[in-house]
Each structure stands twice: as C-alpha cells, then as structure tokens.
C-alpha cells in the first residue's frame, strides 16, 4: 500500500493569508486544491512538500459567473452549471476521470495538472529499479534517452479548451497580480510545463464573451469513463454569417503542452465549413501531431486518430451552426 508521507496541513481563509503562508514555508511548501493529483504524487514521492496549503476554504476561488470562473470550483459543479452544461468547457470537465474524482478535483487543478509519463507515474520502488528519470531524481528521459528535455505529456482535458477559446488566467503572488493568456500559461517541456511560479496562485479564469463563436471538445481514451486522454481535440470557430472568420485547433495528449496547430485553423478561414476544408484542417493537424510512446495505445495509431477526431469536432461545429 502506498502511504502519504507526513506533512503540515494549513487552511488559509483568504488569498493574502495563503500567499503569506507559502512565503513562510518557502520551497518546502505547496498549494493544493482538490488533491486528486498532488496526493497520489506524494504517495509515489514525485512531490515531497513538508507543508501543504489548502486553497479550498478561500471564497474568492469559488466564483461562478458566465465570464469568470474561480479555480476551486469542482469539476462536477462546473459540468452541471446550466450555462456550461452544453459548452466545450462543461464537456471537458465532464470527461475528466470518474464522478468521485470530479467531485473532489477542481478547475484549477486540472489546468495545472502535472505532466504524465509511463516511466514517471510509477511507485518509488519501480522507478528506482530501472533508474530514475529526468523528471524526478534522475538524469535521463526514458522516452527519448538522447533528448536534453523531458517528454512527459500534458493530460489535462480542460486546458486545450481554454487555449482554443482564448481564455485568460489571473494569477496572484508575492509580486502582485498578473493576467496571462491561456496559451502562454504552458511550456512544451515535461518538467517546466507552466509559466506559473510556485508561489503564485491561479485565482480565476476569464472567459471570452459569447459573441459569434462556438467550441467543442473530443477525447480519445481506452476506457470511456475513467482514463486520461491519449488525444484531446478542442476546436473553436468564430463565425461571420455562414463563413469562418477565425478558427483554432488545439491538441491535447500529444505534447507537453496543449498544442495549437495554427495551420489547421488557417485553412478554415474565409469560407463555410465544408467537407474539403474540414479534410484539409484534419490533414494539417495530423502532420505536426507527434505522440510519444509514453502513454496508452500504439503511437502510430494515435497519430492517425488525430485526423479522425479533428474531423469529428469540426463536423459537430458545422452541424450546430
């Protein structure tokens, strides 16, 4: 049985108190919300904080408005808010893991989800037996041994949607407040995958006004009610009459960050969604999609599925317009 190591647990009641407690704890302190990612990682000794600072008791992090969502809103709550039930955001939240984990897991936790890899997400003893990997305690990436960087994969469901729709994240830390576009919040690096600093809190997500755009999210996984995505496709379209004025296609599960394929969006612009343009966008998304052999399924088959899932997402948008 994997057991949690001992740690000090703090429960601040305000953002200012949380920031101050993290400053006191220093590098040995970590923030936690629902804990569905951090606590399993602590059991496997991926993260080893001496002080854990819970954010769940801070009212400012539970905002639920059409254009602003607090990051401690649970995924279950988010997927059941009437104004989000049929949106891409609500769909992505509803597709995360199981009901039990969605009841605990939060929007902010999913947006900051640790990158994953078959060589990393194992017990301490398993990792020690093959020698530790670059992401924790070792010096080599077992996915690509000659690589100077870690190739652990971004497995968030909600993050690709936020990048696709152009959401913004509000962060608060000792240096004050800043707002970051969702696309600039993520790095294509399995270790340094966030631009958020450890002492910053992701406070809320600011969503664009519903002004002539639509978005969908499609997810590929082995078990339809449990697994992390091995491919996620978020598609966003800004309409101008019957034509596409702007579009974004963002892939999840194929890189260390939500990967926007600008070429796929570009081929859709200036014309109605039709079979030819959808096929061209699916092909454009397929080319740079390079899933690594560190999650589920055969990687070449997963790459082929990029075409299929981009087409499905765009077909849904066309049918809804």
In words, what does this structure look like?
With 321 residues, the protein is an alpha+beta fold. It has a domain at 213-320: Enolase-like, domain 1. The chain is built from 11 helices and 12 strands. The strands form 3 sheets. The protein has a 5-stranded antiparallel β-sheet, with no helix packed on it. Strands 9-10-11-12 form a 4-stranded antiparallel β-sheet, sandwiched between helices. A hairpin with a 6-residue loop joins strand 11 and strand 12 (259-260).
Q: Which terms would index this structure?
A:
321 residues; alpha+beta; Enolase-like, domain 1; five-stranded antiparallel sheet; four-stranded antiparallel sheet; 20% strand
């Amino acid at each position: 049985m994997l057991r949690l190591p001992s740690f000090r647990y703090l429960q601040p009641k305000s953002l200012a108190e949380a920031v101050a407690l993290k400053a006191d704890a220093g590098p040995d302190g970590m923030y936690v919300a629902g804990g569905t990612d951090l606590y399993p990682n602590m059991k496997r000794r991926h993260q080893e904080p001496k002080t854990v600072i819970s954010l769940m008791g801070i009212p400012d992090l539970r905002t639920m408005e059409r254009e602003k969502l607090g990051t401690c809103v649970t995924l279950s709550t988010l997927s059941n808010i009437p104004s989000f039930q049929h949106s891409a955001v609500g769909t992505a939240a509803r597709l995360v893991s199981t009901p039990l984990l969605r009841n605990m897991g939060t929007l902010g936790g999913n947006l900051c989800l640790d990158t994953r890899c078959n060589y990393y997400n194992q017990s301490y003893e398993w990792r020690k037996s093959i020698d530790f990997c670059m992401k924790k305690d070792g010096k080599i990436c077992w996915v690509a041994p000659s690589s100077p960087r870690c190739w652990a994969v971004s497995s968030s469901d909600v993050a690709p949607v936020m990048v696709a729709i152009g959401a913004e994240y509000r962060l608060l830390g000792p240096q004050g407040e800043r707002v970051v576009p969702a696309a600039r919040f993520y790095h294509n690096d399995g270790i340094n995958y966030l631009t958020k600093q450890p002492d910053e809190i992701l406070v809320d997500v600011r969503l664009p006004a519903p002004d002539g755009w639509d978005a969908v999210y499609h997810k590929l996984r082995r078990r339809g009610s449990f697994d992390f995505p091995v491919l996620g496709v978020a598609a966003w379209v800004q309409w101008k009459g019957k034509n596409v004025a702007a579009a974004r296609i963002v892939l999840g599960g194929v890189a260390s960050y939500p990967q926007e394929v600008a070429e796929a969006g570009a081929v859709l612009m200036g014309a109605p969604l039709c079979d030819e343009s959808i096929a061209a966008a699916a092909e454009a998304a397929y080319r740079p999609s390079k899933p690594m052999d560190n999650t589920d399924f055969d990687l070449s088959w997963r790459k082929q599925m990029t075409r299929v899932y981009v087409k499905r997402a765009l077909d849904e948008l066309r049918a809804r317009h």
